[in-house]
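Ticket #4471: structure output looks truncated?

Reporter: J.K.
Steps to reproduce: submitted the chain below (166 residues) through the standard prediction queue, then opened the result file.
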Amino acid sequence: MKNENRNEEAVSPVIATILMVAITVVLAGVLYVWASSLAEGNTDGNLALYAFSGKDAQGTPGAGTDDNLIMVTMDQGGDINWASISVKLSVDGAAPVTCDNPGGSGGVCGLVEFGTTDDQVWSVGDGVTIIETGTNVCGGDCTIDVTITDTREGKTIDTTNGVPAE
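Returned output as attached by the reporter:
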């Protein structure tokens, strides 16, 4: 009689194995959903990381309307086609203005490319000199903020703040 009571209290090995497999499958599913949502939220599908640096351009801005203001160089990132970039300039905290990309005309400021200039893209090591084009943007000592935007994605790629133009 005692042997029969012990067998009735225990779970059969088949049922125990099925329960363990079911618990493992459920835990694996929960971890998969959690990990995939975490990865999706952090990268936003775009792994391109950019870094730019700005420095004072040659010459001292004056009352003229064709001064070199600052130089911005790409230090890190993938190639960006000029057709998908917008560069905005803000002088001494004023409202930003959009500069013409290399080869463009008609704006208050323009970009003159240096480095590799025949490939229609901004690459690591390449840069631009931001110049006045017919308007006195900076008439002396001023501080310039530059914002580079990917117009296809509508996202700011980089912001270079507080570059003195002297």
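Triage note (M.O.): checked the attachment and the full token line is present. The two ends are 101 Å apart (CA to CA).
Status: closed, working as intended.
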